[in-house]
Amino acid sequence: MGMQWEELGPEGLAFFGRICASVSHELKNSLALINENAGLMQDLLVLVDRGQPLDPQRVGTSMERIARHVERANTVLGNLNRFAHLTDEPLRELDLGVETALALRLHQRLASQAQVELVLESGADGVRLATMPFLLGNALHLCIRSAIAVAQGGRVAVTVRSTDQGGEVLFAGLPSDAQLPQGEHTQALLAALSASCTMGSDGMSLTLKHLSQETLTTQGGAP
Amino acid sequence: MTKKVLLVDDEKDFLDTLSERLKGRGIEVSSSSKPDEALEIAKTQAIDVIVLDLKMPGMDGLEFLKAIKEARPELQVILLTGHATVDKGIQAVKLGALDVLEKPANFGTLLERIERASIEKLVLLEKKDQEKIADIITERGW
Q1: Residue A21: its chain B contacts at CB < 8 A?
Q2: Which one, of B85, B80, B124, lies nearest residue B104 by Cα?
């Protein structure tokens, strides 16, 4: 049941890589925008030196764009920071809604590239679950990628709810023949999380059971 | 001769700012944040150079590059992207991109590359014209 980080193998690292690549792309876009607006203001100063009056509206527009992108980059960095902290503790009690919301935010760019809208429909808090945060992030990543792949041009509504033994993340708006995440890595990951991923009439469901510290220790779980 | 540039990027703020800066340098600029629309502009309007982002919703920048090079091989494409990997850069050059610049790019460098791309397009068109003339002389050399 337990799973060492190294057992995640190349797929686990790929998960980390994909998220970091997407985030760095977003940050570069914001930096490029800030860079061009700084340049534009420099251009305007050159025109002032040549005797043209300064247009306050153009300066104002540039400053608004810079402020908007500083805010956006800060949000993206905040998400990356929270993502990095998933490895802090091998097992802890967390809020499944909050973690799902983070995973969805981290995949917004990937979704928008595929012209898919990811929407968290339930309240983002209230479902407490004892689990392995990094492995949960990895499992959510696999589910979200599968959902994006089959919901081309569509909308995926995500709901988080509690169950008798833990919690469930439901991805609705997918075709019934949608392919679930597969492969040895996925199976090992789901087993380590005491989780299952199934397709039902209401969508793809990731169901997770509470894990105990004892389980983790006795079965040689994450370090 | 006025250079005509098409900017393609899904970031509207970026398009607006870069357009304004290029226009300030006497360049004629069209822009689009939608790949399909941009492809239509590139196919139907007088454009010398396309400055293209690699990642866009609905179409990969490399797909766009391939489509435009098939339709109008003389158009010069500069990739300006925050997502450049060495592999993607090589693929882009193989598909006919003239240059790959990483965001945030130096504006002076971008202007220089646009200038170079415009010259490259002129050279290609001239070569094409010469080939046409040579064909006419050969076929109707009476």
Answers
A1: 83
A2: B80
